[in-house]
Amino acid sequence: MKLQHYVNGQWVEIDDMNLIPVLNPANGKEIAQVPMASKEVVHHAIEVAKKAQKSWALVPAPKRADYLYAIGQKLKERKEQLAQILTAEMGKVIEEARGEVQEGIDMAFYMAGEGRRMFGQTTPSELPNKFAMSVRSPIGVVGLITPWNFPIAIATWKSFPALVAGNAVIWKPSTETPMMAYELAKIFDEVGIPPGVANVVFGSGNDVGTTLIEHPDVKVISFTGSTETGSKVAELGGKHLKKVSLEMGGKNAIIVLEDADLDLAVEGILWSALGTAGQRCTACSRVIVHADVKEQVEQRLLAAMSELKLGDGADEEVSIGPVIHRAALHKIHSYTQQGLNQGARLLTGGKIADDGALADGSYYEPTLFTDVAWDSILAQEEIFGPVISLITVHSLQEAIEVNNSVKYGLSSSIFTQDINRVFEAQRDLDTGIVYVNAGTTGAEIHLPFGGTKGTGNGHRDSGVQALDVYTEWKSVYIDYSGKLQRAQIDTE
Ligand code: UN1
Known about the structure:
- The chain has helices at about 40-55, 60-75, 80-90, 95-115, 155-165, 180-190, 205-215, 225-240, 260-275, 295-305, 325-340, 375-380, 395-405, 420-430, 465-470, and strands at about 5, 10, 20-25, 30-35, 120-125, 130-140, 140-145, 170, 200, 220-225, 245, 250-255, 285-290, 345-350, 350-355, 365, 365-370, 385-395, 410, 410-415, 435, 450-455, 470-480.
- The chain folds into two domains: about 5-250 and about 455-475, Aldehyde Dehydrogenase, Chain A, domain 1, CATH 3.40.605; about 250-435, Aldehyde Dehydrogenase, Chain A, domain 2.
- The protein is α/β, with parallel strands linked by helices and about 500 residues long.
């Protein structure tokens, strides 16, 4: 299947010379071909989006929201089909793929609701017979650059608030996972969103991404991806005075205190560290465990990990799917090798899994290290694979310090039964998301998603806060006194 860009409500003719294969990470088979857009295609998309946005901004927000309700409905009807495609292109196990499509459905209905809210403020004026309010205004054309690990959910976090707020969107999905974008483009088309309002352009970050960031008519760039790339986006965006929203890496930890329900903690660790083969920004990569329960946690994790089945995520029996591609596999492996070199103790895994049916895919054995030094590479760098590192501590304060010692600040978690320690931890954990007695993954779409430090630049995806990225605040003063009233001066 050859995918096509979707620009101005039309499928763009593609040049066979610029197609690249999309591979199923479970077995290396080609499942589609994705076109790489030329600069002309991107410029054309920007031009039509700019034009379309002017009329879209004048459509009442509840009417714009009607398109989102229709999109949500289509996503709901196609949930299973979309989940199957998602697993085939990204590799996550089918149950998680269904969950991800659900995240998109939830976002559609939630943001559609914003069409009838999008609250601003009314506030008294300091002068008589004068009215003051603030309203949200759309910004214009926004460029969205999204990653492969959540090919549909993250796209909906960004595009739906942008659209309901009256912007036109140009979305550059990852070329690893373009099929979900293609499916969403089909849905945009089917619900009849006005041509040019929602555009999908495939291509590399260097070509399409850079063109979007540099173009004067693209006013906002929302990016999710690595901190390394995000920093380049910020640099270039800064030069061109763009509003840039960045969602980047994480090095998330679960703290297990000595009074924790250990069964629950172990379940939480497995789900959030090994789910999506560890390829969530929110994945638990470190377990900060109190010395009193360290051995118990090790034993329980080992026992549970020996039961896990690696394989093609389309198989309902499989618990861990492949990682995205070979390059990722080798990167993960180089981290585990460095871990060994720095003296961490490997309890299980640490190998590329290539026996039998796994040989054609990109699989890494679920890996558990213990006695990991808090400042070692394993404990500091984002690995993005099924690798858990146990770090021993002796108090809550030390646990919080270790949690906060990394350059990222996305998600954190604490398992304890002690309410006082819960409140202390939620105050002091320096992350954008904190969980208590749950793993580090599983953010819900109506709360802000994002992180501190190297994870972000102060913006949030999803939640009502996402609207802040795609709107400007406008303060409106209406003087009905019939005379010139001077603020701060005519005070008597
Ligand atoms: C991501 O990994 O970038 O909280 C997104 C979660 C999911 C979203 C993760 N709802 O794990």
